[in-house]
Structure formats: structure tokens, C-alpha cells
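Consider the following input, taken from an annotated entry for FADdependent monooxygenase (Acanthamoeba castellanii).
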Amino acid sequence: MTEQQQTVDVLVVGGGPVGLMVACELRLAGLSVTVLERRETRTLQSRALTIHGRSLEVLALRGIVDRFTARGRPVPTGIYGALDTRLDFSVFDSTFPYTLFLHQNTTEELLEARARELGVIVRRGQRVIGIDQADASVIVTVAHGSDQQSRLTCQYVVGADGARSVVRQAAGIEFEGLPTTLTAMLGDVVLDSPPTGPVLVISNSAGCLLMVPLGDGVRHRAVVIDHLRTGVPQSEAVTLDELVTAARRVAGRDFGMHDPVWLSRFGNETRLAASYRQGRVLLAGDAAHIHLPIGGQGMNVGLQDAFNLGWKLAAVVRGLAPASLLDSYTAERRAVGQQLYHDTLAQAALITAREPDTMALREEMDQLLRIPEVNRRMAAQITGFGVSYPGPPLDAPLGWTVAPELTGRRLPDMALQLEPGADSTATTVSLYSLFHDAQWVELRFRDGDGDGIGGEGRAAEVPPAFPGWSKRVDVAEVPPQHRHLKQFTAVLIRPDGYFAFVRSSIGPATAQ
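Applying the prediction step yields:
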């Protein structure tokens, strides 16, 4: 039986962290948003265990990061290819120079609470069975209950529904890449003899073992690649005996594993969507890219997909930007997906090394990671701090231009001393606090003559960069390490915290 058709601005398919993040961004901009999730309840299993530094910055840009850091455990180092040398996250100019160990189900819980707080409708037990695009809308058919169907009409659909995405398949977007060639196993178990330290990694010719405490004070996540068992089909259930035997083979001991609450087998299938957009359908997260789960990158890259897409899609739906802005989503984020594709293949090769030549390659790579510049480069890639975008997603507003040394680069949080108000009292604010409402932010600096922001009355001559979608802040001073910003009279920052444009004169000018 089909129910009456409903209408919503954007329909998000998939109620995991990525889908919920997209929904939060869209609702923050005032759009009506419904999330459809096929699961009746949140899963108790936690596929992802870490939120990396850039993802924490994303949450800080929207004013909700404290909800996550209060529940997680910071770790200042990371693992690359199961090598002995750790990645050092403490070298980055960030409020979050670490990775946060936090169960994915907790991340999902917090994001769903935020979504509902903003007014997002989350409907569970909903299965998409049809998507029909028209020129100005999309009709989505949903199955729920024993024999119920409903139809929703929306302007856009976002598919955040995982590796087997129904949305991607309905849109006819190719999922290009490599099939599973090996499998590994994991278990969330109690240990009688747990290892010391935040993370244990053992890699040798027998395989690889990773052991991480889950943060509940009771269990550890044990991940084992046993070279004698990599050909077992992913569909075959893992037993505790199999996991224990594999751990003994690789590590020489089993740490007293018992009482598993989750056992699973996973593979190294690696794929990337040919495009992240087809008409009014867009993809994010695992619907757009999958890989061997290494380095905690999957969910984090997905969250940043969502953050990149949210403000752009909201602007298009609100009529503040042309639909062509959405093309920049694929251009910017698929490039990150391509890097993720190659990086995880490279790490998989290091992890599965067993012959003398590939073991020698591991040793060489481990030596390279001891070079600070190399370590920083790889750490920036894993954490997302190294992501930059080559050009602005929109044409420069009148009077603004690109600056090659800044445009597309991430902006760290900093304390800004604002120009005194009417009461002559200066105020210091966090830069990231200016982005809580997801607008463009224009920082205007005291000019070189020390006469304030362009002189009395001149501010009125300069129109807002994006009327109805941007805010101005007059800045008196920035921290010393960011004084280079004041070579410009103003900088314009995207809603997702990346530099876009600069001004070299405060008065009316022609865009270059």
C-alpha cells in the first residue's frame, strides 16, 4: 500500500555519521531535511574507532566538538602501514594535534542528537526501492513496515548509504576499482593479559596484529591479518578459536582473549565512484569510496565529504549559488578520494608484506618515516590536515581575487582581537566561533597606515562578498605566526574553513 506523497528540500539516504553530518549542515542553513536509515536501531558494533584532527576541527567550526572530546581519548600518534615508527600528530598548528579514540556508535549517537536538535527528521526502518529524477525534482520510493510504501519528492538526494549504495546504483554511477583479494578478521574481546600502551602493532612474515583498547575499560579491538587465512571468503563467519589461533601465529601469544561481543571478517576491496554527482543525486562517504580500513581514514574522509557538500548544496537550494557549484564537490572531494585510494593500496602492500623483497621495502619505509619532513607529510595525509583545494569553487566577488599562497588552504583556529566597538572595548574571539552558522566570513584588517579599517565611512562603499550568506569581522590583531594575513586588507574564508579570496584595497575595485 502506497501512502500520500511527502515533500522535503533534501533527502539523505543513510543515517550513519556521514549522512547525519550532511543533514546537520543542510538544516543549519534552514533547509527541510529527512534522513532515511534502513536499520531500526543504531548498531552496537563500532567499525570506526578514531576521529582525526581535521574532523575535530570541522566539529569545532560548528561549535559541537566538546560533545565528542568529552567522550573520547586523545592519542598524539598514529600508525602507517603497521610500521614501527609512529606518525607524530603533535607537530600540527591545531587545537587538536591528536586523533580521538571514540566508538563510531558514539559518534553516530552524538551526530543524531545534533541533527534532531536542529530539526532534522530521522526515519529508521526505511528502505529506498526507487529513485526517479526529473528536471526540477527527485521522487524517491521507500518501503517500510511489512507492506507499506511511501513517496517523497525532494530537490536533491544525498546517498550516504554505504559501500553497497542503492542510491549510487540507481543513479548509474560506476564504482571503479579492485575486488577483494584478501580478508582479515577482527574481534572486540576481553583480554586477560592486555598489552601496555594505547596501540600495539606487530608485523612479520606470518602476518599483522593490531590491538587497541576500546575505551570502555573492558575490551580491546583485535585485528589480525594471518597470511595462512587471507583466502577465506568474507562471508565466512569468524570464530573466537580462529582469532586466537591467528593471534598466536602472528604475535606468539593470544593475550587471553575471551568473551567476544563482535567478530567479523573484512576484505580489501578498493573502489572509487566515477563521479560524486549525477544530476540531482550526490554521493558521500562509503557510497563514494571504499578501501581496506587502514589508518582510520574511511569515516573521517566521509565526514569531510559531508562538510564540503553541505554548504554548497544548501546555497544552491536557497538560490544563493548556481547549480554548477555542485560540480566543485566532485572536483574537490574526488581528488581526495583518489589519494585515499592509492594510499590505502600502498599501506595494504606494506601490511601484507611477507617475502624478503617486500619485507625490505617495509624496513626502508620505516626508515623514511624517521625523517621529520616525511613523517609530517604522511601524518598530514592521514589526519586531513594536508587537504587543500586548488582553486575557488565560485567566481571571485567584485573586488576580490585569489592568492596562490592562501586560496584553498585550511585555516587553523586562532584568537582574533577585534576592533573596539562603540564602547571602545576590544574583544578577543576564537576564529572558529565565527563559523558556527556556516556562513562565509570576511576578516578585515587594520590597514598599513594604522587608520583602522579603511577609514571612517569607507566600509559602506564595499558591498558584502555574498549578500545574505556572509559576515564581516573587523580584526585589530592576529597571533604573530599569522601576521602574514595582514599583508591584505581582507581575506574571505569559505563556510568550511578554507581560504577563498583576498582584497588588496578596501575601496571599490575590479575583480582580477
